């Protein structure tokens, strides 16, 4: 049993009109939407039931009409963090599975009909490991996350390269006297840019951790950035002359705000900017929307009683071009967004409605 609710709103921001279409799917319990992919027939929303750990995939046509709710099963992953689409139309899922009270990295591969093709636990030594981001390559995939050694008190950032069969080619750890982990990996041209958090190499409580590895796993350079409190990088994108890196910070405002960092290709910091909207703003991702136009999406406090979904658009200097806040009756938590055309974005997340619904947001921008 499910319910679908549809709301259409339109607001004017600066020189742009943005219309938002929001679709809620009530699955009856507590669910979390993880990721959205675009298909020839429409879209697939991947998520997980939090009370059973069952993974589901909801298909929609191009008009966002629901086609089918597909159950993947509950025994595979205790925490689903990653969904990627392979060039041959398979789905690559990863996260962690608890075995003997230890978190282990699990890989789940599905065909286009959501039938399980492969499932295995990566043979990584240590007490706990997890994956927060994955990059698919021609010869396999690279996983980024965290690792704790048996008997250790701290987490190290973890990077693992596997071939297409799941065999580990190499693995690298980055750590110190406290906790480090990676939140995002992207292709950096001649290597891998990995960003996350460091509590070992910081002038505050935690700083951005920005690292660059060669394709053979050699650490080429690393940088930290932040202030005197808590700062954590969560996303990044490559630009013509370097990288834009997005994170969460409370070092420069009295509340949580997005912090944006620009570096050149060798890691030199060009500028650092706080995206201060005068209220709590938890960023969830950074995507390049158009040439020299970037979108930060996340959840913003409305100043009274709830978090709303927000999309803000920035130029190449990190300056605000326009924004769109989608106001609903209850807390909204967006997790993932993708570009589907030159002026359209689709995102997914979870809402505190009567039950914890999942939702799709279709955003169209017009000049």
UniProtKB/TrEMBL annotation:
Gene3D superfamilies, per database record: YVTN repeat-like/Quinoprotein amine dehydrogenase (2.130.10.10)
Keyword tags: Signal
Nucleotide-binding listed as a keyword: no
Family matches, as InterPro entries: Quinoprotein_ADH-like_sf (IPR011047), WD40/YVTN_repeat-like_dom_sf (IPR015943)
Signal sequence, renumbered to the chain: 1-20
Xref: SUPFAM superfamilies: Quinoprotein alcohol dehydrogenase-like
PANTHER family, per the entry: ENDOGLUCANASE (PTHR42754), LIPOPROTEIN (PTHR42754:SF1)
Record protein name field: Uncharacterized protein
Species of provenance: Pseudothermotoga lettingae (strain ATCC BAA-301 / DSM 14385 / NBRC 107922 / TMO) (Thermotoga lettingae)
């Amino acid at each position: 049993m499910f319910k679908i609710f549809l709301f259409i709103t339109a607001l004017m921001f600066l020189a742009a009109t943005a219309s938002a279409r929001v679709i809620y799917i009530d699955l009856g319990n507590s669910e979390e939407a993880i990721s959205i992919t675009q298909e020839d027939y429409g879209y697939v929303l991947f998520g997980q039931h939090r009370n059973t750990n069952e993974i589901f995939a909801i298909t929609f046509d191009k008009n966002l009409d629901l086609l089918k709710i597909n159950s993947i099963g509950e025994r595979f992953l205790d925490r689903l963090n990653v969904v990627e689409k392979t060039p041959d139309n398979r789905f690559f899922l990863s996260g962690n599975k608890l075995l003997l009270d230890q978190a282990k990295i699990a890989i789940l591969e599905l065909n286009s009909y959501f039938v399980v093709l492969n499932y295995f636990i990566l043979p990584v030594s240590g007490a706990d490991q997890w994956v927060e981001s994955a990059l698919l390559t021609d010869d396999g995939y690279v996983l980024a996350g965290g690792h704790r050694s048996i008997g250790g008190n701290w987490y190290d950032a973890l990077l693992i390269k596997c071939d297409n069969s799941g065999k580990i080619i190499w693995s690298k750890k980055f750590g110190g006297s406290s906790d480090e982990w990676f939140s995002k990996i992207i292709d950096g041209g001649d290597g891998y840019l990995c960003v996350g958090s460091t509590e070992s190499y910081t002038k505050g409580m935690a700083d951005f951790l920005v690292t660059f590895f060669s394709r053979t796993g050699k650490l080429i350079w690393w940088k930290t950035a932040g202030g005197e409190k808590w700062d954590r990088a969560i996303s990044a994108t490559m630009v013509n002359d370097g990288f834009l890196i997005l994170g969460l910070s409370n070092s420069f405002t009295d509340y949580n705000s997005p912090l944006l960092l620009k570096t050149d290709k060798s890691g030199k910091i060009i500028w650092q900017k706080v995206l201060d909207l005068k209220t709590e703003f938890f960023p969830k991702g950074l995507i390049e929307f158009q040439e020299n136009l970037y979108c930060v999406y996340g959840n913003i406090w409305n100043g009274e009683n709830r978090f709303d979904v927000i999309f803000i658009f920035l130029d190449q200097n990190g300056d605000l071009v326009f924004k769109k806040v989608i106001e609903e009756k209850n807390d909204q938590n967006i997790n993932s967004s993708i570009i589907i055309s030159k002026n359209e974005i689709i995102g997914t997340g979870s809402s505190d409605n009567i039950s914890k619904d999942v939702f799709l947001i279709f955003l169209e921008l017009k000049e």
